[in-house]
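Researcher: Go.
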Amino acid sequence: MISAWAISGLLVMVDFVSGPSPGTFFATIGLSLGFNDPISAQYIGFGLHILTGTVAGNIFGQLALFWRKLIPYDIKRGVSLGVTVGVTLWAVLFLPLAAFGIQPRLDEYLTSAPNAYVNNIASHFAGLYPLIVGGSLLFHLVYGAILGLMAGRMAELKLLSRNAIDTRIIR
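Model: Structure:
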């Protein structure tokens, strides 16, 4: 969940720096689902983004419980596994949704937007698809690194506390 919030915060900062109003990225998610109200589109997009990142991290954790090869024993292993999770999430979820859902909808809105807000967003993202795909890979790598860092550190702490308890019992 921490990594999902961190990336969402970075995305708001990118919106702020690059020109459109903060939350525009999340609005594109909501708009592609048919929410044409600016506020609703942003909140729906933001909620789905946080939910997706949280669920992906949870799935990673659950798989690690049952498949020992996925256990992040330390920070280094955690980060490498987390980056793998980030790239997998990008390839399996982001790319198909962007290519077959969001981008076609934005292209459609260039010619027939339901309101000026939607038209402005569609115009802002026109022609930026390759940049968005590359940038999103970078963001998913950061997401994975944060996820893995947290998972690896928690695993280290668990092992340290277990060793401390075992040492006390033996004495």
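Model: The chain is about 85% helix and 0% strand.
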